[in-house]
Amino acid sequence: MKPPDPSLLSLNTATVKARWNLAQAIEGCARHGIRGIAPWRDKLAELGLKKAVSLIRSHDLSVTGLCRGGFFTAKDWLDDNRRAIEEAHALEADCLVLVVGGLPEGSKDLIKARERIKESISMILPEARAAGVPLAIEPLHPMQAADRACINTLEQALDVCDALGEGVGVAVDVYHVWWDPKLEEQIRRAGRKRILGYHICDWLVPTRDLAFDRGMMGDGVIELKKVRSWIEAAGYPGFHEVEIFSERDWWQRDPDEVMRTMKERHLSAS
Amino acid sequence: MKPPDPSLLSLNTATVKARWNLAQAIEGCARHGIRGIAPWRDKLAELGLKKAVSLIRSHDLSVTGLCRGGFFTAKDWLDDNRRAIEEAHALEADCLVLVVGGLPEGSKDLIKARERIKESISMILPEARAAGVPLAIEPLHPMQAADRACINTLEQALDVCDALGEGVGVAVDVYHVWWDPKLEEQIRRAGRKRILGYHICDWLVPTRDLAFDRGMMGDGVIELKKVRSWIEAAGYPGFHEVEIFSERDWWQRDPDEVMRTMKERHLSAS
After folding, report:
1. What ipTM does this complex have?
2. Omega before B39 within 30 of 0, i.e. cis
3. Contact A40/B at CB under 8 A
4. B1 pLDDT exceeds 90?
């Protein structure tokens, strides 16, 4: 299989969050010839939206997604998601990534939690459409169902998309979905229309933490080239965003080393 | 919802493995009035099959499952599974639980691994049928796909059952499947014929280890009563087997305390 187009590489700023603020990440992308960036909103708030927009434009970077909206279990979810949509609009982001939240405090009712998520997305969808900001539901790994997101398979996310119509799709993060026996089938079902983002990293064996032990592409067991072939066959033309939460390894390293490794592995291992 | 019949409680010996050998677990069940037991094969080998059969019969316990066959990635998998079938037969176990194994050493090919598992089960199935030992495929949580079992949903396990025919079914362990949006639907599909075992415990928030941090019923977020109602609606009349891997908590406690808690929580929280 042909290596991917290097100009499709994007940095999700979580990958370098321990040592770089957003300005440093933007400048790092420019320095390393990485054309896409996906900022997290805490770092965005730190820098300020206007400065971020201006700095990103001055380096002509594409914003492959804004992380994140969602968390519909939070008290101020509606206002917070409205602000996120405005920010994504200002950044001309390809999508606003929704990490939908898990079980509400004190509840075990997963079915109701999932219903509420669908309703909540439907409530912010008109504003997102009006702002031209596609909403990307990110199915999270089932091990994060209770505390982070109770949308846990691509099939489930696409069922929600089908119920809600235009303006909503999915972010396919290999870390969350690689294990799914229906992955190829559901990527095909999603098609170009629904795939709004493609996130890469790797699954380490052993994995020592349920959230912060992701691997660099090539260091784990995910068949990244095969998954990319499915994504491409579905017609997705967009960026490959590297998102690595790694408390013990990559967050400890010099971010310039991380960027160089990312670039190499994007070509050799994904 | 009515509490469950207390005579349906079964001890999976993993729950007390840190402090009790199999003889102690059998005697513990008898002492606490627990009518079912599911031994692990390492403890069985330690005690000896004949002694185990005799001790279990002398206390008139039901063997709700033998843990475990499977691990089709191991070098001696065929001989080992044959021995497991013989042992399950001698114990008159309700089923032999199959933990099917993850990716073969050095491979990332999940699709091929899954195909190989199906073939391997089909190779031991005639012997299992002849011995009157139902094989129970246990779908494991997706977080264990790489290293323990790459059958990860009930739907996937039932597809394998449908392909293989009679003599094979599933062990439904709430810990592995509670998050699945299709759980109710797939339990209904499985029905009385395919559900060979029902394992309970709880999912803790936070979960601090991918394998050994399970909770006691009632201490986590699984809607155990709801899942039991689905299992019962599907016609499953069998035991509720408590299987708790818990390095930091329950394995540290006096097993008699564990047994008492299990009995209480079976009634109050499952």
Report:
1. 0.97
2. no
3. no
4. no
